Amino acid sequence: MKKLIILIFFLALSNIYLAQTSVKCTYKITINENILNVNSNDDKTSRDTKNMLNNALGLAKRFEYTLDFNNNESIFQLNRLLTEDSKSDYLFPIAKAIIGQGVYYQNKVENENIHQLETSVALFLIKDTFISDWEVTKEQKQIGKYLCFKAIKKCDSCDTSDEVWFTPEIAVPFGPLGYCSLPGLVLEVQKNLFTLSLTNINFNSNSVEIIKPTKGKIVTKEEYKEITENYRSQLKN
Amino acid sequence: MLVSTLAISSTKSVESKSFADPYACWNAADAAEVYTCGYVGCNFGLWDAVFNACMGNQQ
Fold this sequence. Notes:
heterodimer; B: 2 helices
């Protein structure tokens, strides 16, 4: 009985330690080249848009994102310190929007997955939950020293799908850009135009306090979609 | 017809020009979504940023 009490004490102590210790991850972008090639069939709008996006992606190569987490919650955002000189560039908001903008907060205890996003319409707090609708595949690869597995999430209303690589060796259900609820930390996100990859992880970071975003118009994903579609339609009219 | 140009040199930043046709900017913003994430409506933040840049609006 005495041994059991001692064991429970140490387990509780380790949980408190994990809850208080933040882990800091750094993610960087690799652009997938030759995806947005201008071709002779493109009209002027397509040509100008592709050139603009390519230039924005060139700017995004310099971005660095951080994911800070403890045992219960995480926060993911652009590292502002490294983008101060880019802010005056008109492509900066476009580059941010392509990769990931705003603050992504996740809390596994409260079942919260929140994206705080500023737009012309409003500052939004888009609230979602931890939904485990991933298809975990048998594909494996090594990312750094971690064995990773591929997971895919299909879009119900479109032909696209999200593809990430996670490692069960870091057993937290968090990841960048709001990707969560996998049985391990997401180390890599593969998109059409770019790949977002973990480049550094510091397990002894005590310097960051994870602050849940609370400012903004609280909406669900469906409400956000409806509001922004109405906004677009109004602009056209 | 898109009056202002969004294409710039790859090494220097250039301010976007205003006086654009809103319809053309709307189409450019739609195109940006399709090229980046596959369909119109997939990334309103991007649509918003492209439209505002095209129109010369500050963000």
